[in-house]
Amino acid sequence: MTTIRRLRTALAGAALAVATPLALAAPAQAAGPVHGVETLEFTAQQEWLTETCGFPVTIHVWGSWNTVTWTGADGAVTREIRTFRFRSTTSANGISLAGLAMGPETITYAADGTAVVDERGVVLRRVPGAGTVTLFAGYRVHLVDGDAEVVLDAHGQAEDVGLLCAALTP
Q1: Are 138 and 155 in contact (CB under 8 A)?
Q2: Three-state SS for 93?
């Protein structure tokens, strides 16, 4: 019985002697996700709608993203989930239309500096007399490489821009 106890003690000591340096030499692990809130508010001319409607159209946007960000062992951001909710006012010719955009987007960052963005959600505007006109409902996946952005996949319902332009026409 004493021999068995000595053997156990010796094995436990040997295991501890081997495990301690291995534990100390283990690669650094990434920190857990970081939660945050980003707010945004701006007013700008909406170029694509200005071109389509034939008159200046501006948009005022305000809202926020709730973010969850993951980083690698080197501290670089590897993934981010941003749940967004923005309100807007689209205006032209003294007429203003209320809008709403909401949904999640997931951004996966690659070591080469590119990122894949997966957006899901709905963007809509309310047109007096016509109800809600959907700008986008569905999902879109795009690759971002520096200033270039390429849509890889998109499915959803597009807005009738003619109805929107007509609603902004006096």
Answers
A1: yes
A2: coil
For residue 45, being part of any structural domain is answered with yes
Q: How far apart are CA 159 and CA 89, in angstroms?
A: 16
Number of separate domains in the chain:
1
Tokens linked to 169: 């026409």
Going from the C-alpha of 77 to that of each of 30, 72, 152, the distances in angstroms are: 10, 6, 22
Note the maximum CA span of the chain. Answer: 99
Q: Are strands 34-45 and 58-71 parallel, antiparallel or unpaired?
A: antiparallel
Q: Whose structure tokens read 């879109």?
A: 140
Per-residue pLDDT tens over the stretch 103-160: 999 999 998 889 999 999 988 888 878 788 767 788 888 888 877 778 788 888 777 7
Does a structural domain hold residue 11?
Answer: no
What single DSSP character describes residue 29? Answer: P
7 C-beta neighbours (distance < 10 Å), count: 10
Q: Round to whole Å and give the CA distance between 27 and 37.
A: 31
Query: Which comes out higher in pLDDT, residue 28 or 165?
Result: 165
Which domain, by its residues, includes 62?
Answer: 30-167
Would 131 be classed as within a structural domain?
A: yes
Enter the tokens of residue 125.
């505007």
User: Positive or negative CA dihedral for 104, 110, 111, 113?
Assistant: negative
What SS3 state is found at 68?
Answer: strand
